[in-house]
Design a protein that fits this description.
Strand content of chain B: over 45%
Order of helices and strands of chain A: HEEEEEEEEEEEE
Largest sheet of chain A: 5 strands, antiparallel
Distance between the termini of chain B: 22 Å
Radius of gyration of chain A: 23 Å
Helix content of chain B: under 10%
Distance between the termini of chain A: 22 Å
Order of helices and strands of chain B: HHEEEEEEEEEEE
Number of strands of chain B: 11
Oligomer: heterodimer
Number of helices of chain A: 1
Shape of chain A: rod-shaped
Largest sheet of chain B: 5 strands, antiparallel
Radius of gyration of chain B: 23 Å
Helix content of chain A: under 10%
Number of strands of chain A: 12
C-alpha cells in the first residue's frame, strides 16, 4: 500500500467503500501508530509520502584485564573485533559517535593511536579514515569521543571500528560505537 | 491547515462533507506520511498537534592551520560553517578537530551563532592542552528560538601556537 492524497468531499456525494479503503484505511496504515510494536525508535522519511522507523544502536568492547594493542600503520582489527553494528538501515545520513580509552607506548606528535570505522553495504562502502577518527599521541591514557555526520546512499550497512598507529604501539580499551541513522 | 481534534460520531447524525474535509482530509494532511518529502529527514514536534521534518547538517575543513591568538579568531581557512540552517527549539551542536599546541597551553575551538550573544565562549568549547596530538570533540545542547541560524567555528589558544586540522561542526536539531 501507499499514501494517497486525501480526497475532498462535496455535499451530497455518496462516500464509497473503495474511497474509505483508499483514503482512510490505507492512509491510516501509512501513519506512525500503524507501525508494528516491534518497530522501535523514531520516524524518518524513506520516500515521498513514506516513513519508516529508525532505532539508535550502540555496541562496546571492553577487554579485561588488559588493553588490546596494534602496531599496524593501516586500519585493522584488534584481537577482539569491533565494536561492530550490523544490518542498520540508512536512508541518507548517519550520526556516528566513536569513543575509546587509548594510550601510546611513546609520547610524541608523530606517535598517534587512532580509532575509526569501516562502513560497508552492498551498494556503497567507505574505509576507515583519519577524517572520521579519534586520536591520541600521548603516553598518558585518555578516554574521549567525537561525533560525525556522514551522507550515505540508502542501504543496509555494517559498521566496524578499526584501529591503527602512526608508529610504535597503540593500546585501546573501553571501545564504543553508537549510530543514529536517518 | 492545522490539526483538529477528531469529531465523535453519533448514531443517526449525517456525516457532512465539511466534517469529512476537516476531520479526515485535513487531519490526514497533518500526519507524517503527508509531510514526508525528502529522504533522510526525520520528524520532530513543531508545536501542539504539529509535526515537521528536520535533517542533520555537517561541515568540515581538513587543512592543518595554526593560530597564536588568545582571543577567538578565524584560521586562514575560515570555518567550517553551517550556513542558514533551519533550527527547531532544541539542537545538539557537535564540534571537534585534531589539535595540539607548541607548549603546555590550551587549544580551544568554539563557534559563533548568528543572533546569539556570548559566543564563541570557553564555556561552549572543545579544549585540549599540551603538545600531544589529540582528535576528539564535544557537544552542547542548544535551546533557541526556532529560526534560521549560521554557525561558524572559531579558535584560540591560551599561549603558544595551536595547530588545528580535520575540523568539524555538526548540528542535529529537533
Amino acid at each position: 500500500m501507499a499514501w494517497s492524497a486525501p480526497m475532498t468531499a462535496t455535499a451530497g456525494y455518496i462516500f464509497k467503500a473503495s474511497e474509505f479503503n483508499t483514503y482512510i484505511r490505507d492512509n491510516l496504515n501509512e501513519t506512525g501508530p500503524s507501525f508494528g510494536s516491534s518497530d522501535l525508535g523514531f520516524f524518518v522519511v524513506s520516500g515521498t509520502n513514506s516513513i519508516s522507523t529508525s532505532l539508535p544502536l550502540s555496541a562496546s568492547v571492553t577487554t579485561s584485564p588488559s588493553d588490546e594493542s596494534t602496531t599496524s600503520t593501516s586500519y585493522t582489527d584488534l584481537t577482539t573485533l569491533g565494536p561492530q553494528l550490523v544490518d542498520m538501515d540508512v536512508q541518507q545520513f548517519v550520526v556516528i559517535s566513536l569513543g575509546c580509552a587509548s594510550v601510546h607506548n611513546t609520547s610524541g606528535s608523530t606517535n598517534t593511536c587512532r580509532m575509526s570505522v569501516d562502513i560497508a553495504s552492498e551498494a556503497y562502502s567507505t574505509a576507515a579514515s583519519d577524517t572520521i577518527s579519534i586520536a591520541n599521541s600521548s603516553n598518558i591514557r585518555y578516554q574521549y569521543g567525537a561525533t560525525f555526520v556522514l551522507t550515505l546512499v540508502p542501504g543496509t550497512y555494517t559498521f566496524t571500528a578499526k584501529y591503527k598507529v602512526s608508529t610504535g604501539t597503540g593500546n585501546f580499551n573501553n571501545r564504543s560505537l553508537s549510530i543514529f541513522s536517518f | 491547515m492545522a490539526w483538529t481534534a477528531p469529531m465523535t460520531a453519533v448514531d443517526g447524525s449525517a456525516f457532512t462533507a465539511a466534517q469529512f474535509n476537516s476531520h479526515v482530509r485535513d487531519n490526514l494532511l497533518e500526519t507524517m506520511p503527508a509531510k514526508a518529502l525528502t529522504v533522510g529527514d526525520y520528524f520532530t514536534t513543531a508545536g501542539t498537534n504539529s509535526v515537521t521534518t528536520r535533517r542533520p547538517y555537517t561541515a568540515n575543513v581538513a587543512t592543518s592551520e595554526t593560530t597564536t591568538s588568545t582571543t577567538y579568531t578565524d584560521l586562514t581557512t575560515v570555518g567550517p560553517t553551517l550556513t542558514s540552517v533551519d533550527v527547531g527549539n532544541a539542537a545538539f551542536l557537535f564540534f571537534g578537530a585534531q589539535v595540539n599546541n607548541s607548549g603546555a597551553n590550551f587549544c580551544l575551538m568554539s563557534c559563533t551563532m548568528t543572533g546569539i550573544a556570548g559566543l564563541p565562549s570557553d564555556t561552549l568549547a572543545y579544549g585540549v592542552q599540551g603538545t600531544a596530538v589529540r582528535k576528539y570533540g564535544t557537544f552542547i545542547r542548544l535551546i533557541v528560538t526556532p529560526g534560521v541560524y549560521t554557525f561558524q567555528a572559531k579558535y584560540r589558544v591560551s599561549g603558544g601556537t595551536g595547530t588545528f586540522s580535520t575540523r568539524n561542526i555538526t548540528l542535529v536539531n529537533f
